[in-house]
Structure formats: structure tokens, C-alpha cells
């Protein structure tokens, strides 16, 4: 087989066709792009492509995800009032939504934790009571048109060097990251399951309308966040009963339109592996090993469906930053050897790259990936 372009390589893998070698694609976030370019006032899509090309990665880019704001939208009975406060190195973005039936309030914090890194968190959730949710149902405007310009730009910038991979939250993640505190949500499932079901159905329907516009923009792969209800937080039985049905309905909606749905579970997964075959997703990232997860690659390969696309497994928090280039090369060899007969594998990290990762380690990652991941 002749050498494929990165785009051809990744698309053929997604379609289950033979490829020349495993794609080498660590996840890239804006932090390392800022570090690489030594500035933060950059076009992240262009910067990501430049960073990946510099090291020779096959580009699978999620920096092109169109922004989606479901609270701060105008409507006849839905008036958001926006404010901002700064305390120390933390900025608080406050949205107060006024409706005829009452007010909703959300506070989102952004903290500068390093020269190139920020930490974001939802510190006040808009749904504190059942009545708050009723305000959404009664007064929230329809999902607005989505500006997908960033996706089109990314496809042009990446060209033959890879693909776009926008990211959306799955149903349970959506509730936790956007609307209701995790502790309250888990309590709802036990003591007020009807309330939980109404919330997850309502917001899943809205996220589907948002996601439909991403699909219409033409994408081959969508990353679906499902890392909150991980194997350390909930039991397999709880997960199967209360999360799995919604996750499957959501990914079916995506995959019925010819787009591959990738389960984004970048944390603890070992306790759920026996029930993973019940998922409808066509792939899973990012097989996080200890100490920041508990996935053992060989165990995962035994238990997950063989048709699944798997992506990741190299620890980028400690290992890639502290190992020698020789140790990186050896670890890539071990992973590639373990997965080679199975196929359907993307050599990558267990989440996005960290700053202060030695360049020589990234080059060793790529060189070893090309050498040991070759199918030719």
C-alpha cells in the first residue's frame, strides 16, 4: 500500500478499511499551542494545525467545536443580564435570566493557573430547584442557529493533514456541566427519578438540535463527553439503568447519519468494561492508565467489542513529561504491539497534552508510532 495522507489514513480507519499505519494523534488543547507560539492572542485553529504539523502528528482537531450558549440567548420571555467580576486571578461570568415566572442565575469561573493554562468551572448552577427547571420548560427560546464557520475554516486549514473532530457533551455530562450540581443530580436519580428523567430528556433534545447543525456542516467524527459518570463514581448497574439508555439514544441519532460517535471517557473505566459492549458507540477514547485512571490496555482489548475504534492510552500528565525519549519509544512499541493484530487503533494520549512536555519526547512518540505502528 502506498503511503496515505493523514486525512485518508484517519478516514479509512473510521470506515474500517486497511491503512498503512496507525495514526499518531495525541489530543491537543490550546495550552500547548499557546506555549508553542509563546503567546495567547492566537487563532487556536491555525495554531493547532501549526503545532501538529511541527511534530508530524496526524491531525484530529477538536479546537474547531462551535461555541454553544444555551442560557445566554434572547427571547420574548427570556432576558439574560450579563455581568462580570474579578477577584484575584479569577474572573466570574454571571448570567441572570429574567422570566415572567422568576429568575435563573449561573456563575462560571475562569482562573489563570499558569502562564499558558486556565481552569474553568461552573460555580453556581442555574437549576437549584424543580421550579428553576420549569422556567426552562416554560420560557426558554428554541435552539438558535449555530455559527459553524470555525468548522469550515478548520477543514480548509487542516486539508489533507487530518480531520475535524468537534466535541459535544452526552446527555448526563450536559446536565452536570451546564445545569445541575452533580450531588443534587445523583440524589434526584434516587429520590425523584421523574424529575431527573424530565431534565435529561429536555436538554438532550436541545443538544441534539445543536449537534444536528454540526453534522450538517459535514464532519466524520464527533467526540461525545461521558466522563462524569465514570466507573469510580457509579456502579455498572447504576450506569446501565440510569445513563446508558440516554447515551445510546444520543449516539444512535449521530451514527444514523453516517458520523462516527466516539465515547469520551478519559477517567476511570475498569469497573464498567464488562458492560461497555452494551454501548452503541463505534469508538472509545482515551483508555486512561494509572495513576490518573485505571484502564489496563490488555484487559480493555479483551472486553470491548473488536469493531470499536480505540484511541489513546499514553499518560500525558506524568509519563510523557518525565520519561526519557527512549522510554517513550519503548512504551509506544508496547502499545502498538498489543493492539496491532486487532487494528482499529489510534496512538494517542489519555487526554490533552500538558505544557512542559519535552519536544524530544513528542518526536520520539511520532517516530516510534511510525515505526511500530506500520501495517506495511
List the helices and strands and how they pair.
Elements: H1 6-14, H2 30-37, H3 44-55, E1 59-61, E2 79-87, E3 90-99, E4 102-112, E5 118-124, H4 130-139, H5 149-158, E6 162-164, E7 167-169, H6 171-178, H7 182-191, H8 193-216, E8 221-225, H9 236-242, H10 244-255, E9 260-264, E10 283-286, H11 297-303, E11 309-314, H12 319-322, H13 325-339, E12 345-349, H14 359-372
Parallel strand pairs: 1-6, 7-8, 8-9, 9-10, 10-11, 11-12
Antiparallel strand pairs: 2-3, 3-4, 4-5
Helix pairs in contact: 2-3, 6-8, 7-8, 8-10, 13-14
Task: Please provide the count of β strands.
Answer: 12
Which strands sit side by side, in order, in the main sheet? 7-8-9-10-11-12
**How much of the residues is beta strand, in percent?**
15-25%
* Structural class estimated from helices and strands: alpha/beta
The whole-angstrom Rg is 21 Å
Poorly predicted runs are none
Mean pLDDT comes to 97
What is the top-level CATH class of the largest domain?
Answer: Alpha Beta
CATH topology of the largest domain: TIM Barrel
Helix tally equals: 14
Q: Provide the domain count.
A: 2
